Amino acid sequence: MLEMSGIRKAFGPVKVLHGVDLEVRAGEVHALLGENGAGKSTMMKILCGILQADEGTIRIDGTERHFAHYDEAIAAGIGIVFQEFSLIPYLTAVENIFLARELRTRFGLLDRKAMRVRAKEVLDKLGVAVPLDVPVADLSVAEQQFVEIAKALSLEARVLVLDEPTATLTPSEVEYLFRVMRDLRSQGVAIVFISHHLEEIFEICDRITVLRDGEYIGTRAVAEIDTDGLVEMMVGRRIESNFPPKPDSHPHARVVVDAEEIQLRKNGPVSSFQLRQGEVLGFAGLVGSGRTETALSIMGAYPAFRVKVEINGDPVPPKNPSEALARGIGLLPESRKEQGLITSFPIMHNISVNNYGKYRRMRVFLDLAAERHHTEIAMRDVRVKAPGPDVPCDTLSGGNQQKVVIARWLNHHTPILIFDEPTRGIDVGAKAEIYQLMRKLTEDGYSIIMISSELPEVTGLADRVCVFRSGAIVATLEGDAITSEEIMKHATTGKLRYVA
Known about the structure:
The protein is of the alpha/beta class. 33% of the residues lie in helices and 24% in strands. It has helices spanning 40-47, 70-75, 93-97, 112-126, 141-153, 171-186, 198-204, 227-235, 291-297, 321-326, 336-340, 347-352, 368-382, 398-412, 428-443, 455-461, 484-493, and strands at residues 2-11, 14-24, 29-33, 55-60, 63-65, 78-81, 159-163, 190-194, 207-212, 215-221, 255-263, 271-276, 280-284, 306-311, 329-332, 360-361, 365-366, 416-420, 447-451, 464-469, 472-478. Helix 4 (112-126) packs across helix 5 (141-153) and helix 13 packs across helix 14.
């Protein structure tokens, strides 16, 4: 169905793809894997006419094609779910799904009723309920992801590209998506599936093509390779363990955050938890369970109904994020590109953006030499891989972008860190680096709240785990009790606590 041969692409002097090949058969789910920066997304953007290859050919059903822009690719039966959302935030789900190909009545007017019915049919097929008539900016990240997927499915494409579609979904939501993918496979659709969750590759895919540093490494049938072999193809070496060993429990360590009562909404359930110095405290639960909102409420970034919390013994909680920053709380947000970085700015400005006060000279001028010096130290401490501090952040891989955000908080000396989905959209090698960095931070006295939808990440890294359900913590697990089964049991049946 799809054949891409000898694809080459360079951005100025930087060569991104070096004669890469990809062949996808009708009626198969074909994984395209590689570390961040391997060239996967660039390859798919060339397929969809968003970028133009410098060399190489594209064949659909044996016919050579060249797409000058995205609309031509859509007309040829190619649909794509982008890794970074391509939604218009102030349009509704229905308007986004049919953007630029709206259904019309015979009088030329928009047929809003028909579009709504069709959008609901596609979302029902996915097994999810998404509000159709509100701006997508008001939807959760997972709901926005399903709008993206519905947008691609509504095209009835013959070649469907799914670039990290499960990054924000719960296990049950992923299973709905996989059911749809199996249906499409049985109908002869060729599916290109990009994911950093290797367990998903072995569950849903038929064959795998691996890229590394813009080079074609090889194609294997899923039945012919195991996880270790696949990782070695991707990173060029074996990774013995993703997770660093957990330290011995320190139940008497100093409490840096003591949340006695957090009530997200009036008449809702109440949470309580403690964060100790030098630990990773995991926040786990289904999407919409209140994990992120609870964490943001302690730094004044979410308007919870009741917040009774002490930060380093101070019983007055921060009123806003600026005050939280002054109190030593830093946030690595779920969406690093929208909320964590100014991607068009260089690394240096992103790391020092919260710190310009200490670079002032005579209250007017910036000490650029000091700014550069501290930026280089922070980059070295978290091992940002980049030519230098003047490189724009939008040229970095996802793992290095995450490291830049972490470097900002180290540069600002915030000993309490909230990491929301710290490895979302990051390859297996970069994940291991982030995990090692988080553990080193706790060894140096930092305290981390880690919010994650990935149960292996929670069980492998967290010293203790708070399990959320319906907006509140229903259990706190530690030691041998930190298992995926125990977390899911409490996340689905845990008993809620209410106060008068």
